[in-house]
């Protein structure tokens, strides 16, 4: 099923279906480079789901810490430096694969990299399904959670129901 947001501007599609991850390939063809920022736990359970996507020469996988541990200045700088080392252009995509913290972090990277690049949300938890369409992205500071951030809407949101069906719930 394909839905469409109805904001006054900057609308984007929301795909909700089994196998929705296949829609990523359509988007990757449009970008100079794509960086999949994937939660370490999701990578552990679902790395095989991304083999076809990772076969593209212009796609890079970046495994990031799970949960709030990823939303630090240090992780932000490390991730940006890695991406920038690939000589990216504004026609680059950041693809968030994981829970809400992964989406927050990857969205903030997308919003600030070259003053904004494409951003695709691939939420893998129930809670992330809500936060992935809101457009709030950010990282934490020593003073509190989500104090550094932006409002940055994704290019697309891809809800692959297979993630929910196959999740090992004891990890979350």
TrEMBL record:
<keyword id="KW-0963">Cytoplasm</keyword>
<dbReference type="GO" id="GO:0009073">
    <property type="term" value="P:aromatic amino acid family biosynthetic process"/>
</dbReference>
<feature type="domain" description="3-dehydroquinate synthase N-terminal">
    <location>
        <begin position="62"/>
        <end position="165"/>
    </location>
</feature>
<keyword id="KW-0170">Cobalt</keyword>
<dbReference type="GO" id="GO:0003856">
    <property type="term" value="F:3-dehydroquinate synthase activity"/>
</dbReference>
<dbReference type="GO" id="GO:0046872">
    <property type="term" value="F:metal ion binding"/>
</dbReference>
<dbReference type="GO" id="GO:0000166">
    <property type="term" value="F:nucleotide binding"/>
</dbReference>
<keyword id="KW-0479">Metal-binding</keyword>
<keyword id="KW-0456">Lyase</keyword>
<protein>
    <submittedName>
        <fullName>3-dehydroquinate synthase</fullName>
        <ecNumber>4.2.3.4</ecNumber>
    </submittedName>
</protein>
<dbReference type="Pfam" id="PF01761">
    <property type="entry name" value="DHQ_synthase"/>
</dbReference>
<keyword id="KW-0520">NAD</keyword>
<dbReference type="InterPro" id="IPR030960">
    <property type="entry name" value="DHQS/DOIS_N"/>
</dbReference>
<keyword id="KW-0547">Nucleotide-binding</keyword>
<keyword id="KW-0057">Aromatic amino acid biosynthesis</keyword>
<keyword id="KW-0862">Zinc</keyword>
<keyword id="KW-0028">Amino-acid biosynthesis</keyword>
<dbReference type="GO" id="GO:0008652">
    <property type="term" value="P:amino acid biosynthetic process"/>
</dbReference>
<dbReference type="InterPro" id="IPR050071">
    <property type="entry name" value="Dehydroquinate_synthase"/>
</dbReference>
